[in-house]
Automatic annotation (TrEMBL):
Pfam families documented for this protein: N6_N4_Mtase (PF01555)
Family label: Belongs to the N(4)/N(6)-methyltransferase family.
Organism: Aneurinibacillus aneurinilyticus ATCC 12856
Enzyme class: transferase
DNA methylase N-4/N-6 domain boundaries: 16-214
Gene3D superfamilies per the UniProt record, alphabetical: Vaccinia Virus protein VP39
EC number of this enzyme: 2.1.1.-
Superkingdom assignment: Bacteria
Protein name in the entry: Methyltransferase
InterPro entries cross-referenced by the UniProt entry: DNA_methylase_N4/N6, DNA_methylase_N6_adenine_CS, RM_Methyltransferase, SAM-dependent_MTases_sf
Keywords: Methyltransferase, Restriction system, Transferase
GO biological process, one term: DNA restriction-modification system
Length: 223
């Protein structure tokens, strides 16, 4: 289901304790290129190859929904890479979020990239509201997170994230039993992180194949 229509339909204003999400970066990425076929391993995910204007419209639409459903004073984490970061930063501000930090995810080993090869991604950390907002539950987490990436040949989704990345966000910005929402669930890394930490979870995924993979993952960890 689309996160824009889905959140509008199912989630009330000021009802969500935490949003963690990893939207399409609009890079038209289909996963690492296979040595044998010279083709990407996956199809390009939905909304990842839009004109700039359409990507802006799409981003503002889901961000407005995110702002609407998040409880005042609560946190949102949005993954992004360096190419789209300046735009997303402004769009998040435009819908009302106050940006608090930029987290650098150090993937420990490098992946693709021309010239210098990429070893990091970014996560924007923001809050809804300016005063007396929630604090992260630890003062011992720096803004660089060293978490091993999943090797390209072991992923089941072109932009699959390690569960630990979402676990840090959820651990630091919510309490057990609270509701965590992901607008772009992919194959369910955030769902697994929320489950491991005993949070309630609501996720949206537009691709039926990846949605089914998330359901299977849920069934696996529930047994
Ligand atoms: C960057 S990936 C998320 C990957 C995820 N973090 C994981 O580890 O599996 C973005 C996902 O958003 C989905 N998507 C794109 N447009 C969407 C929309 N309007 N509503 C819901 N999901 C959407 C894509 O199919 C893709 O799986």
């Amino acid at each position: 289901m689309c996160c824009i229509t889905g959140s509008e339909q199912f989630l009330e204003d000021d009802s969500v304790d935490l949003i963690v999400t990893d939207p399409p970066f609009n890079l038209g990425f289909g996963g690492t290129t296979q040595t044998r076929t010279k083709k990407p391993r996956f199809h390009i995910i939905e909304n990842d190859k839009l004109s700039f204007r359409d990507y802006q419209r799409f981003s503002l639409q889901w961000l407005r929904q995110a702002y609407r459903i998040l409880k005042p004073k609560h946190h949102i984490y949005v993954c992004i890479d360096w190419r789209m970061y300046p735009f997303l930063f402004r769009w998040m501000q435009r819908v009302g979020f106050h940006i608090k930090n930029l987290i650098v995810w150090d993937k420990v080993s490098f992946g693709m990239g021309w010239q210098y090869r990429f070893q990091h991604e970014l996560v924007i950390f923001a809050v809804k509201g300016a005063h007396k907002v929630r604090r992260v539950s630890t003062r011992n987490t720096p803004d660089i997170w060293k978490i091993k990436r999943i090797p390209g040949n072991q992923t089941c989704h072109p932009t699959e994230k390690p569960t630990e990345l979402f676990e840090i966000m959820i651990q630091n910005s919510s309490q057990p039993g609270e509701l965590v929402v992901d607008f772009f669930t992919g194959i369910g890394a955030s769902m697994e992180a929320a489950f491991n930490l005993k949070r309630d979870f609501y996720g949206f995924e537009i691709d039926t194949g990846y949605y089914n993979d998330t359901i299977k993952r849920y069934e696996r960890i529930h047994i």
